[in-house]
């Protein structure tokens, strides 16, 4: 088992106190509906730099304190009742974020040569739990030093109650820019989502995906660029799909086959979160911070027709669902719905547009970006592969279903075993 020793825990507060007039930030209707779970990503940085690990850790803490002055809600706490209303809000009280330092008794090069996927949660505060309570920090960071040999990793956990993947990525970029001395003038996030999507009187937190008590370790797949192009031409009788549409349709079908009797007789559904910022009329900029996405649903009912039509059939269903958001106004949009009885839902989230591999704190970009185990099943995360050669896919299925999924002949025809990070 991976040996990780926690060395220090401290609270990082904004370097400049948040003004009193910014003390309360209402959450939006979209925030209101989301359960309090976390977005977790870990970035690995190779050895070979001239600066010592202690200096790197100090610089990260200092720049984090500076960037929190602009992302001040992350240093606050979610409260369930506003002093003057029943709204859920963030009290921007500068209570701070959690910063943990830890030592990993493993050489980073050997770690990346054969990554222990099921133990990546150890590189996050609290073991990388997917869910948190309201009184916990909205942002937690763990700085992991690999020894001997040097190298380090940054596990960053942000509450989804406050931010979506786009906002998470924008924060990482702003932090890295600040660390490199490019923080001013840099991104100044706009906290306007509550004005765009006001809270509603009745909007309970919705369990939009199946949650399991045990942590699910993901399978990691690599779909290289040449395999992506082959996959996009697989359903020749239909319109050429985007790369994401083609990959989701493939993963979805293989997952359904792996479920076998579990999925038989149930309504099959793909849930895909879509960034609303560029799709709204008028469009929003990427610096609009918050949960500004819509969950679209594609029905898989009827997909089990002739084999040659299945891929294109599901690609078409996905395209129809996503294109329905184009030109939407703020008033047109609702939030996700809970998993209904008799529905087998699969979540596919694409992080391919997020520039995680450009997250340079001053010592170059990460050698690898990874996703830890989580409590959601039937969940798939798509990311750009290291070096830009295709996609890396993280698949979260139950152990029984994972066995059939990993052996699916069609999946094997379009994917490669990722193996060592250095082989990408």
Features:
424 residues; alpha+beta; Chloramphenicol Acetyltransferase; 2 domains; six-stranded mixed beta sheet; 17 strands; globular
What would you note in describing this structure?
The longest helix has 17 residues, at 243-259. This protein has helices at 29-33, 53-67, 108-113, 165-179, 193-196, 225-232, 243-259, 307-323, 399-406, 409-414; strands at 4-12, 24-26, 38-45, 77-79, 89-91, 97-105, 139-147, 152-159, 211-216, 219-223, 267-275, 293-299, 343-350, 368-370, 374-376, 379-384, 391-396. The two termini are 25 Å apart. It has a six-stranded mixed sheet with strand order 1-6-7-8-3-14, with helices on one face. It folds into two domains: 4-196, 2-Layer Sandwich (Chloramphenicol Acetyltransferase), CATH 3.30.559.10; 211-423, Chloramphenicol acetyltransferase-like domain (Chloramphenicol Acetyltransferase, 2-Layer Sandwich), CATH 3.30.559. It is built from ten helices and 17 strands. It is α+β, with helices and mostly antiparallel strands. Strand 7 (139-147) and strand 8 (152-159) form a beta hairpin.
């Amino acid at each position: 088992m991976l040996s990780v020793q926690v060395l220090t825990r401290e609270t990082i507060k904004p370097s400049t106190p948040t003004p009193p007039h910014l003390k309360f930030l209402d959450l939006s209707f979209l925030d209101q509906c989301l359960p309090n779970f976390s977005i977790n990503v870990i970035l690995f940085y190779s050895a070979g730099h001239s600066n010592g690990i202690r200096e790197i850790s100090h610089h990260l803490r200092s720049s984090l304190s500076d960037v929190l002055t602009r992302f001040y809600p992350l240093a606050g706490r979610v409260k369930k009742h506003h002093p003057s209303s029943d709204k859920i809000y963030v009290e921007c009280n500068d209570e701070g974020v959690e910063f943990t330092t830890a030592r990993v008794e493993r050489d980073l090069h050997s770690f990346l040569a054969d990554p222990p996927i099921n133990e990546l949660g150890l590189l996050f505060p609290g073991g990388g739990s997917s869910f948190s309570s309201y009184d916990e920090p909205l942002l937690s960071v763990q700085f992991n030093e690999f020894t001997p040999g040097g190298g380090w990793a940054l596990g960053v956990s942000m509450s989804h109650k406050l931010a979506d993947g786009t906002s998470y990525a924008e924060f990482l970029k702003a932090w890295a820019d600040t660390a490199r001395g490019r923080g001013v003038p840099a991104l100044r996030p706009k906290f306007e989502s509550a004005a765009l999507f006001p809270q509603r009187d009745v909007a309970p937190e919705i369990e939009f995906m199946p949650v399991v008590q045990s942590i699910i370790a993901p399978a990691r797949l690599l779909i290289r660029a040449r395999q992506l192009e082959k996959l996009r031409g697989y359903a020749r009788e239909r319109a050429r799909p985007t790369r994401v549409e083609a990959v989701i349709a493939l993963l979805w079908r293989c997952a359904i086959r792996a479920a076998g009797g579990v999925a038989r007789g149930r309504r099959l559904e793909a849930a895909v979160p879509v960034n609303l910022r560029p799709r709204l009329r008028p469009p929003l900029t990427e610096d609009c911070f918050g949960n500004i996405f819509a969950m679209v649903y594609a029905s898989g009912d009827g997909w089990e027709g002739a084999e040659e039509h299945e891929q294109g059939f599901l690609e078409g269903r996905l395209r129809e669902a996503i294109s329905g958001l184009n030109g939407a106004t703020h008033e047109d949009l609702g939030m996700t719905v809970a998993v209904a009885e008799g529905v087998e839902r699969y979540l596919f989230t694409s992080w391919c547009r997020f520039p995680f591999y450009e997250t340079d704190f001053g010592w170059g970009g990460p050698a690898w970006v990874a996703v830890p185990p989580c409590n959601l099943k039937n969940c798939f995360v798509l990311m750009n592969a290291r070096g830009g050669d295709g996609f890396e896919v993280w698949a979260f299925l139950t152990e029984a279903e994972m066995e059939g999924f990993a052996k699916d002949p069609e999946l094997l025809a379009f994917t490669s075993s990722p193996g060592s990070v250095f082989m990408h």
